[in-house]
Amino acid sequence: MGSIYRRLEICSVNLQGPSSLRTTHLTHLQFLHPLASRFFAKPFSSAIDDELAVKSFLVSFLIDSCGLSSTRAVCVSDIYGERLGFSPARKPDGILELLRDHGFRTPHIARMISNWPLLLRVRCPQRTLLPKLEFFYSIGFTKEDLPALISKNPKYWLRSLEGHTRPVYSTLKAVLKSDDQVVHILKRARWGLPWMGEKNLGSNLVLLRGIGAPQSTIALMLKNFPSDMLAKHEKFCETVNEVKSLGFNVSKSVFALAVHVMTCGKAAKERCSKIYKEWGWSDDDILLAFQKAPLCLLVSEGKLKRTLDFLVNRMGCDAGAIAKYPVILLYNLERRIIPRCLVVQLLLEKGLIKKEWSLGSIMTTLESYFLKRYVNRYPDIAPQLLSVYTDSILRPSKTEKLS
Known about the structure:
Blueprint: H1 2-14, H2 19-32, H3 36-40, H4 44-64, H5 70-84, H6 93-101, H7 106-115, H8 125-128, H9 130-138, H10 146-152, H11 161-176, H12 179-188, H13 198-210, H14 215-224, H15 226-229, H16 233-245, H17 253-263, H18 266-278, H19 283-292, H20 301-314, H21 319-322, H22 333-349, H23 359-364, H24 367-374, H25 382-394
Helix pairs in contact: 4-5, 7-10, 13-16, 14-17, 16-17, 22-25
């Protein structure tokens, strides 16, 4: 708009000349920009004042009614002002009223309008927006969780209810079997339902069924890694074939974890592999660990180093042997690994277990069995064992350091 004003100011100087010259300038100016007629239909200064008044109103409306910051409101006004096309006499109050009636608070509205200002152009919100809200309520969303979902991705409003939303919902429901699970997926998916194209999702489901993946594995992938299932079909095919070539059985749940790991970027996997090699693992050890617990290639660097340091340097475990039980690397160091090792250390001091204790049986067994096998089994010192164990879980930061 500023460039238009500058051109108008230049032309207004030229219009001080003879009447024939003024006519020529005006005709050319109107031809160059359709807004010119709006400025010259009335005195020049009055036209500018009216435009500024409309812009001022829009900025104030975005701040006061929609909750935008002043900086963002000015930005939205500059970019979308003419496309929004409303004024004091024509405000989109019906949209805001509908949203607030359905639990959308000012932060939700501000986020939506900031990301998609053209929502304010919607006509007849009772006919266009309300049916979409009612659909989401029908599958289990509430007025408490739906605003958070839609404000995070206002493109939910853009998708056709009958042409996109319902068909994708039906596809998800056919796999997951319950509306609760579908709602769970929509809350977890990085992009959400607006980006769930039927083509990729449907093709990827057909591929998994075609290679013999059971319903339970497919449901696991959808529930836990929905974004993986939305990958482009060609890329998804490559990932699935790569995982199969590494010896994974498609009928096992670990197959779904492997696909997820291979879908993630190379940086995390390469970082973990480098750390494992620094601790003496071979390529075969890394492959073995990946086949048993694929997520071991996505552990954070800090957690991985602390866990390996503790098990090898504090507890005397063989680094290569840990590759046989890689799931241990996924456990919480302070609340599982250290407490159980404190019990082991005390049992070793008392001579109640062999020095060649099994890392796998100690760490991977269920809590109830661990207490039965390694704590309650020794009634003479059971209270002491239980105290050491529970204290280290409840107060991990105060846990006694192992020598």
